[in-house]
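User: I want to check something. If I give you two sequences, will you return the structure for each one separately, not as a complex?

Assistant: Yes, each is folded on its own. Here is the first sequence with its structure:
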Amino acid sequence: RDAGLALNIVAMLHNFWEQKQGSASQSEGLLLYESAPSPRPPYIYYVTLPGGSCFGNYKECETQAEARRDAARVALMNSLVNELPSRRITPLFITHSLQEAASASTDACDPSTSLGAYCLLLQSYTGRTMLEFQEGMTVFQLLHWNGTLKILRERQCSRQSVIGYYLQRGLDASMRSSMALDWLGRERQTPRQLRMELRAAQRELDVARCHGNELRFYKEKTEILSLALSQEFTHQPHTDIHGPHTDSQESPEPHIHHQ
């Protein structure tokens, strides 16, 4: 019976999201499974859910099939827990979260502060789940890591406009490419910085995976840095930055660097 359950865990995850999405006609590409390149065990597998959340196997697996099943098991457990009422973002949850994060000198109602920005993000996800909120937060984690948020602050973009713009846009191939080019420019200014950052990101990804955590932020970092490394000798430096213009804070227009 245990073997049968193990064999069916991939199908169970697929069925859960097929029912949740109501997309039986498009079920073939509902979940994305990826294996990390490895000539020998232990093998690593990742599964990306429809909203972008990513999970991996945290057991040491002797076969790729076992790693795939374990990744599906971790993803299914998190998917089921995410459906609990306690995982829903409510006004009460927002209040408690802000109270925990607040300091005596910080005003959560002021969107110009970091806590105020966190409040705006939480309010944007009222009625939705923590997994959905984390999917949105990942975009801003990447923008902070990449230095984009700092540049947008220097351009005097309001936090409201930045949050509104990126919540609507999400994370796409153009943004990943632009971030990769940013890191390529840093590599030309400081040789070997890119390789050091990639090694650190890979370690973070491994630690998070072994703890059964949601992985998208760490996985996106490694993929962006790997893309930059692969393009090291094929692109010229660039100075553009993606994001909203400073002169359109209510409905900012995208300003994207294309290759």
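And separately, the second sequence with its own structure:
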Amino acid sequence: MKNKDFPSGHWTNAVVSEVVQLADRLLGNEYEVMEKGRQDIVTTLDIQMEREIKALLLSRFPNDGFVGEEENQTASNHKRIWVCDPIDGTLNFTQGIPYFGVQLALLEGDAVLFSMIYLPKLKELYTAILGQGAFLNGTSIAIAQIQTLEKSIVTFGDFSKSNPSSRTFQNELIGRLLGKAMRIRIQGASSVDFAFVSSHKNAVHILFSKNVWELAPGILLAKEAGCVVHKFSGATHGFEGEGLIISANQNILDEILIEIEKM
């Protein structure tokens, strides 16, 4: 298969199908849990899945690069790069909580061309192609109906390990939104967070991660589903890097930005 054949047509379906089948086959296997720094874990399945997804993709697209959370974090200088989080939400996975997923995206320069998020226990497969829309189990995702923050479920990412300086700001923002939103939740997996806001189960997701494998798949999915994606600098709020807000629409985003301006 040539690089130019993806993402397009039946090649997209073929790649997605193979990754889903691989995940379904491996996720039922036994595994070991290992420490991965302070307050973090990794399983032997995370590593095995990343290796097999990498082998699958590079056998089809030998001219592409690959970046993964577990063993392939260094960015390559290839024109196109696959980005993968083999089990996003590993802690949830090991605790029998169904909120975990497989994340995959294809980048060319700064553009995300394709993404998929697969939530095995929920039997939900999300896909997006740049300029061609977002889909849940093959059906186009409809536009969100919720228009106000007071009717919205707002989710936050876990208190960031990749950007720990954001934790104080996140804690204060949660406090500010508690009295404004319908509910505030932390679900423990970027795959679920992005999938749920893109499919309008939730109306807003806010996170502070710097990791491309957490961000790229979900950002394209959200944009193609009609969500508003807003980045804001942490420099004026006492933390490094950026914050990211994914909102069902501009009205809800504006309400959140008003609260941030008060901080």
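Because they were folded independently, the notes below concern the second chain alone. The chain has a mean pLDDT of 92. Helices lie at 9-26, 44-60, 90-94, 167-178, 190-198, 212-224, 250-261.
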